Task: inverse folding
């Protein structure tokens, strides 16, 4: 039996909602990187009863989602049903996204290079399941009717109107089966989409984008070029994925003194990858406020995360740790031993983050 907890983010259930505006409105967004489903993860989640349980994966990171109105993850698997498989054609048990939902994630972006791993069935069933679980989502669509109202996806939170767009560089050479639609990086189409978002009177436009070179900790020329195009076109926040390692993030001001954010890659949120840089990621928290019809980015900071895979009672356990917090406050005693790799990851990740502009690692725990 699948159990879903109802969090304060229940307001996102219908994908679009409006809360009566206040004199000064505020909203917090949290973004994480790639949610992967390698075969060892599937095996670890399987229980003797034949069901699957991923709840332990996100339990320690849950408070950092619950403190945000919108929490976004890149779902880089399909939910195509059995047989469940990892790389190279991912299909994970539905319980993976149930665990994400229970941990406080309420928004999934689905346009990535693995969107079509199980062809039409994978695209359609993934959408069906995340709809049934009341996730807001965008990036892939069962058909043009499904796409209507989800692209751009407009959410109004405490009177702040946010337009979300999601694109991928490709689908690993697997063609998109009609009538399915997967948003691809295309500057002409993106220009039209951004104009649509503006016509919706969005206060901020957010693009989640799957791009870049795998395992490279610096953005390539294509990434920087597309980012510059998006920012010139009026996109306020760009969140990147695909490299499976973190890349720098920048908070800058344009010529109109409007603050803009580009995060080139948040790395892996959860996966079985263990090579340097791939065993962790970053989550970025962005605070927006609106006063007298003007919405601004007040603050942005990141928390480094690391995937702990202890073996307990003969079984691997996958646990996302809030590494930045544990480094400063100590690792709680209930976390299984064997986390020395976390400190190695932090050392490497902080070298990458030295190239950031205006976005820093958290100094204290976020309001929990």
Result:
């Amino acid at each position: 039996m699948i159990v879903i907890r109802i969090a304060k983010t229940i307001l996102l259930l219908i994908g679009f909602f409006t809360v009566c505006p206040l004199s000064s409105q505020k909203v917090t967004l949290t973004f994480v990187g790639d949610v992967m489903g390698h075969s060892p993860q599937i095996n670890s989640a399987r229980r003797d009863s034949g069901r699957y349980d991923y709840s332990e994966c996100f339990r320690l990171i849950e408070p950092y989602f619950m403190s945000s109105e919108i929490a976004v993850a890149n779902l880089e698997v399909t939910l195509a049903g059995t047989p469940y498989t990892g790389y190279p054609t991912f299909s994970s048990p539905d319980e993976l996204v149930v665990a994400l939902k229970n941990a406080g994630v309420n928004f999934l972006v689905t346009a990535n290079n693995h969107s079509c791993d199980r062809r039409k069935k994978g695209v359609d069933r993934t959408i069906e399941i995340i709809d049934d679980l009341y996730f807001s989502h965008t990036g892939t669509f069962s058909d043009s009717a499904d796409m209507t109202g989800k692209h751009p996806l407009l959410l109004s939170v405490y009177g702040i109107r946010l337009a979300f767009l999601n694109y991928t560089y490709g689908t690993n050479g697997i063609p998109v089966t009609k009538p399915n639609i997967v948003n691809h990086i295309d500057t002409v189409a993106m220009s039209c989409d951004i104009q649509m978002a503006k016509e919706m009177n969005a206060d901020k436009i957010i693009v989640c984008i799957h791009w870049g070179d795998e395992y490279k900790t610096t953005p390539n020329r294509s990434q920087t070029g597309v980012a510059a195009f998006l920012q010139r076109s009026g996109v306020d926040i760009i969140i990147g994925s695909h490299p499976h390692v973190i890349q720098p993030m920048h908070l800058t001001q344009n010529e109109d003194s409007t603050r803009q954010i580009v995060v080139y890659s948040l790395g892996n949120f959860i996966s079985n990858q263990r090579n340097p840089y791939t065993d962790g990621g970053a989550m970025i928290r962005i605070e927006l406020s609106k006063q007298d019809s003007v919405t601004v980015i007040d603050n942005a900071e990141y928390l480094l995360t690391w995937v702990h895979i202890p073996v307990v009672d003969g079984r691997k356990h996958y646990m996302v740790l809030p590494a930045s917090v544990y480094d400063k406050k100590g690792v709680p005693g209930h976390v299984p031993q064997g986390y020395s790799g976390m400190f190695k990851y932090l050392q490497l990740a902080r070298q990458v983050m030295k190239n950031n502009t205006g976005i820093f690692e958290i100094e204290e725990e976020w309001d929990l």
Notes: The first strand starts at residue 24 and ends at 35. The radius of gyration is 19 Å. Confidence is low (pLDDT under 50) at residues 5-22.
